[in-house]
Design goal:
Number of strands: 11
Radius of gyration: 21 Å
Order of helices and strands: EHEEHEEHEEHHEEHHEEHHHHH
Number of domains: 2
CATH class of the largest domain: Alpha Beta
Shape: globular
Largest sheet: 8 strands, mixed
CATH topology of the largest domain: Spore Coat Polysaccharide Biosynthesis Protein SpsA, Chain A
Structural class: alpha/beta
C-alpha cells in the first residue's frame, strides 16, 4: 500500500488549516502522514499521530515545502495549499494512478467549495472562464485527463525520489516555485506528467474584488519574470494577451490618429472583446440566477485583464520582490489576497 506524505505550509494555524485537518482525517485511505509547517512556534492537539507540526527553518514557501519533504517517509509527496481541502477519495484515486511506476508527478483540479458564499463563488466564476484562464481552466474545474508541464502546488503529487533528484522547490520565487519545480521535472524526464480529474480538492477563493486583484497582480508579475527567464513554460501567447490588450487600449488611439485605417481594426477588436465579455457575463448571471452577477463579472474580468496585463509587463522589466501574505496574529487567518 503506497504511503503518502502530505505537506501543507502556513504562516500560522488558522481556520482553513483546521478545515483541512478535518477532511484529511476523513479520507477513505489511511496510509499517510501530514506535515504542517508554520512560521511561528505553536501547539495543536491533532488527536492523530499521523499529523506532525514543524517550525519553519526558513520562511520562503519553497523552503518550507522542502523542509516537509526532507522529513517525509512516504513514497509520494502530496502538496496542498493551506486554503484547500481534499475530497474523500483523493488519496485512494492517487494510489491507483501511482501504481504505474512510470508516473513521476500528478496534478488534479482545485474546485470552488460547493458551499462557498457568493463573493467567493464569483471569484471562482472568473477564473473558471476560458476568457480569463485560457486553456488552463482544467486547474479549476474537472476536465478530461491530459499531460501537462506546469501545475500549481494547490494539488500536486510528486514521487519523493523524483522530487529529491531535482533538488526540490526553489527558494527564490513566490509565487512560481511550483512552475520551476515542474520545469525541472519535465526536463529531467524529457516528458510531461499526468493530470487526472479524479484527484480532486476544493480550493477557497479570494473575495471580489480587491483581494482577487491583489492575488492576480502577484501572478502577473511572476509570470512576466518567468516569460523572460523560463521560456519553456511561460513564453506562451495566452500569457502575453492581457498585456497586449492593455497596450492596445492605451496606445491604439494614438496609432490610429497617425494611421487612420487602423481605426477599423481598433473598433473591431473592442467590439469582439465586449461581445465575448457580454456572453460570458450572461452565462454567469444565468448560473447565479442574479442580474447583479452580470455586472460584477464584467467588472471583475475587465479589471483582471488590466491588472494582470500591467503586472506581467512589470515582471518583464524587473524581478518581483518576495513578499509573504500578512495574517492576523490572533486567528492566523490571512488579511489580504
Amino acid at each position: 500500500m503506497i504511503k503518502f506524505s502530505i505537506v501543507i505550509i502556513v504562516r500560522k494555524i488558522n481556520d482553513y488549516v483546521k478545515e483541512i485537518i478535518f477532511h484529511v482525517k476523513n479520507l477513505n485511505y489511511s496510509n499517510f502522514e501530514v506535515f504542517i509547517i508554520t512560521d511561528v512556534k505553536e501547539e495543536f492537539d491533532f488527536g492523530d499521530s499521523r499529523f506532525k507540526l514543524l517550525l519553519a527553518d526558513q520562511f520562503s514557501p519553497g523552503g518550507k515545502r522542502n523542509q516537509g519533504a526532507r522529513n517525509a517517509t512516504g513514497e509520494i509527496l502530496a502538496f496542498l495549499d493551506d486554503d484547500s481541502y481534499p475530497k474523500k477519495d483523493w488519496l485512494t484515486n492517487a494510489a491507483i494512478i501511482f501504481a504505474d511506476a512510470s508516473i513521476y508527478a500528478l496534478g488534479g483540479p482545485a474546485e470552488t467549495p460547493l458551499d462557498a458564499g457568493y463573493s467567493e463563488r464569483m471569484f471562482g466564476r472568473v477564473i473558471e472562464s476560458a476568457f480569463v484562464s485560457g486553456n488552463t481552466t482544467y486547474r479549476y474545474i474537472p476536465k478530461p485527463k491530459r499531460m501537462v508541464d506546469d501545475y500549481p502546488s494547490v494539488n500536486l503529487f510528486v514521487r519523493k525520489d523524483s522530487f529529491d533528484s531535482v533538488g526540490g522547490f526553489t527558494t527564490e520565487f513566490w509565487p512560481g516555485e511550483d512552475t520551476k519545480l515542474c520545469l525541472d521535472l519535465v526536463k529531467k524526464y524529457d516528458r510531461r506528467f499526468s493530470y487526472d480529474p479524479s484527484v480532486l480538492v476544493y480550493h477557497h477563493r479570494r473575495g471580489l474584488l480587491l483581494p482577487h486583484l491583489k492575488q492576480i497582480s502577484r501572478y502577473g508579475q511572476h509570470r512576466g519574470q518567468f516569460a523572460k527567464i523560463f521560456p519553456e513554460t511561460s513564453r506562451i501567447p495566452s500569457y502575453f494577451a492581457p498585456s497586449a490588450f492593455v497596450l492596445g487600449i492605451v496606445l491604439g488611439p494614438f496609432l490610429c490618429f497617425l494611421i487612420p485605417p487602423l481605426w477599423n481594426i481598433y473598433y473591431w477588436v473592442i467590439i469582439v472583446y465586449l461581445s465575448v465579455l457580454f456572453f460570458e457575463s450572461a452565462k454567469v448571471a444565468f448560473k447565479e440566477k442574479n442580474i447583479v452577477a452580470f455586472f460584477e463579472f464584467e467588472v471583475a474580468v475587465f479589471m483582471t485583464h488590466v491588472v494582470y496585463g500591467v503586472n506581467f509587463l512589470i515582471g518583464l522589466l524587473r524581478k518581483p520582490k518576495l513578499k509573504l501574505k500578512r495574517f492576523d496574529e490572533k486567528t492566523g487567518n490571512y488579511v489580504e489576497g
